[in-house]
């Protein structure tokens, strides 16, 4: 079975989508429509902007979404049999499997990005990558700390990202290193994504997601919150809301897709981060990318 996966925040780069824009009239029309929907020229920032501008959550998220979705919509013979997306990428996956329209997907992503940006500004917070430690050990040590710090991304075996207050993440990094983690690396991010500190963003986004039309998808999506297959539009909505404060169960998602018969994975969008993570889950699986 053909599986398609869509990257999240962190895969962006200056020049992303430019080749697509210049080589396809259909792609150009989508990019031009996006500028109108958003009310600013996101294409200018994507193609020729500065790293600093592109790194803003309110810009990064719609930029990665646009690159991924427009590439998927302009691929020849695009016929996904299962899809998944990492964090923000879940919205790209839902447009790719026709659960969301391009317009509604972009509006929700923009709303999500702005709400998360505001939540980041409310409380100084951060994230850190923990390498070379079992998931349950990381979770247990985080739970023992009297500050907000939680597992946020189960990326692949031996790589988990934690998220929380600056003090909480600092204490966790120290304790995890003492307990034998190979590395505890603070990340250059705007805030504590997929943690309780995103609760204000979750409240703000909930109304917009409930108001959006989610159609029955043409193929199943494996959502971050559970790592399990979903086709019911109401459950898809609930999981999209829960995702803001819940961890991204990416390792579990990849393993479930493999158990359910995935024979090849195509990463659609900027970068090849997800292909690299997949190889750490299963070296034998066939991967490719469409950027």
Q: Please report the total strand number as a whole number.
A: 10
The CATH superfamily label of the largest domain reads: Malonyl-Coenzyme A Acyl Carrier Protein, domain 2
> How far do the termini sit from each other?
21 Å
- What pattern of helices and strands is seen along the backbone? EHHHHHEHHEHEEHEHEEHHEHE
* Biggest sheet layout: 4 strands, parallel
Residue-averaged pLDDT:
96
- Rg (C-alpha, Å): 18 Å
Tally of alpha and pi helices:
13
Q: Which structural class do the helices and strands define?
A: alpha/beta
Unreliable parts: none
What is the multimeric organization of the chains shown?
A: single chain
Overall 3D shape: globular
Q: Report the portion of residues in β strands.
A: 15-25%
The CATH class assignment of the largest domain is Alpha Beta
Q: Assign the CATH topology of the largest domain.
A: Malonyl-Coenzyme A Acyl Carrier Protein, domain 2
How many domains is the backbone divided into?
2
